[in-house]
Amino acid sequence: MNARPMTIHTPDWVKHAVFYQIFPDRFAKSDRVAKPNNLQPWDSLPTPEGYKGGDLLGVVERLDYLRDLGITAIYFTPIFQSASNHRYHTHDYYQVDPMLGGNEAFRELLEACHQRGMRVVIDGVFNHASRGFFQFHDILENGPSSAYLDWFFIEGWPLSPYDGARPANYRGWFNNRALPKFNTDNPQVREFLMRIAEHWVRQGIDGWRLDVPFEIETEGFWQEFRRRVKAINPEAYIVGEVWRDARRWLQGDQFDGVMNYLFAGPTIAYVAGARVDPAQVVGRDYVTSPPLTAAEYAREIDDVLSLYDWEIQLTQLNLFDSHDTARLLTIARGDRSSVRLATILLMTFPGAPSVFYGDEIGLPGGVDPDARRTVPWDRPETWDMETLAHHKQLIALRHALPALRIGTFHTLYADDAVFAFARKLNDQTVIVAVNNDEQARQVAIPVAHLLPDGREMIARYGNYRNLIVHGILHVFVPARDGLILE
């Protein structure tokens, strides 16, 4: 599991990154970007339609906040011109949405991020476009005479792009007529999409996050995508939105990793347990129930770590929530200790951790669209400063200890409540123990195969120190908390 074969190469920088996911309309807005008038109040609850007016220059103005948090990479949900606040309905793949500040704002953002050593990954929506996409709009205007009929899947006439009482007569993603599906078997469509990917890598982005890539079944599509992107920047990160077993895409010839919901599901089931609110996870394609004991969680994690090559494991994008899910705090019915435990695991697990914007200050949010709330920059009294300090501490610890980033992974101990593992890199061994019980636990962790007797282990997170005696490290793990020992 921990061997590192030469056959698969993934971007080295990702193994050392801490990501932050930003939904641009909701993170921050700048007075330097002109806006239309009919915006929703920034502090009002989000709705499926309607804009708050966040933009990319607002992000630029908050980059020092992110650097202070310890963030080294940002993943943006779509930024291209679109008639939707989430921008998954793409109009023009070569134009950053004017409401976000346009291409000029994006260039400023890229430069500002790179000056701070931050990477930028953007969302690629290549399975489907929108009703406003030029080639599809041409079909709506010209009907059977359009030159672009074979760019999509037209099934009859007339087309009905808006009237749900009539058949759409074209194929949309998930039967959504707002999202006409590309015919990627058409070489012209395929080449169009490949050139978009190449263009933005040449403009300086550090990677692509791929929306619903499993929907594109054209033979060789993603292999060609990888070849062409990596030819421009071999260290570009390609990460797919695949919620389940992703071995098909993670053989070294397509993606460098996926959004690791296979880690998220069991971790939530372990740290939140019976606190999980079923209404907040219904219909989501990850498994957060039934509650898991530490022993059951350890087995789940070992299974996850056995799925992919170790080089791939180190560039998985680990997360607990995103724009597609309720926030963990709300899933756990407001229980902050669940977030604390989860964050310990997130920052010590193999793969790149990703924080959904606002999670670090205790921003709540239920299922879409509620999870897409705005950051209350003008109301810092609403921030959970303890959670913010906790995130900063653990992110700094990950940056300080190379073993937490690229060290091998060894499960050491698991009972009904306590899970302990080690990350080892050369002479550095870090032991992590977490306890989901309401009571503190004293446990004996076998470490003879990793560390010598007499070695003193001192807490880098928590307050504890002890010697290894007869191959055993006795630890006292606080209730609903953990220890990180070196």
Walk me through the topology.
Layout: H1 12-15, E1 19-22, H2 24-27, H3 56-60, H4 63-69, E2 73-76, E3 80-82, E4 90-96, H5 102-115, E5 119-124, H6 134-142, H7 187-202, E6 207-210, H8 221-232, E7 237-240, E8 257-258, H9 261-271, H10 294-307, H11 310-313, E9 317-318, H12 328-331, H13 336-348, E10 352-356, H14 385-400, H15 402-406, E11 408-414, E12 418-425, E13 428-435, E14 441-446, E15 456-461, E16 465-467, E17 472-477, E18 481-485
Parallel strand pairs: 1-2, 1-10, 2-5, 5-6, 6-7, 7-8, 9-10
Antiparallel strand pairs: 3-4, 11-12, 12-13, 13-18, 14-17, 15-16, 15-18
Helix pairs in contact: 7-8, 9-10, 13-14
Structure notes:
This protein has 486 residues and is α/β, with parallel strands linked by helices. It has two domains: 12-127 and 184-400, Glycosidases (TIM Barrel, Alpha-Beta Barrel); 407-485, Immunoglobulin-like (Sandwich). The chain has 15 helices and 18 strands. The chain has helices at 12-15, 24-27, 56-60, 63-69, 102-115, 134-142, 187-202, 221-232, 261-271, 294-307, 310-313, 328-331, 336-348, 385-400, 402-406; strands at residues 19-22, 73-76, 80-82, 90-96, 119-124, 207-210, 237-240, 257-258, 317-318, 352-356, 408-414, 418-425, 428-435, 441-446, 456-461, 465-467, 472-477, 481-485. The strands form four sheets. Strands 8-7-6-5-2-1-10-9 form an eight-stranded parallel β-sheet. A six-stranded antiparallel β-sheet has the order 11-12-13-18-15-16. The longest helix is centred in the middle third of the chain and has 16 residues, at 187-202. The radius of gyration is 23 Å and the shape is globular. The model is unreliable at 1-5 (pLDDT under 50).
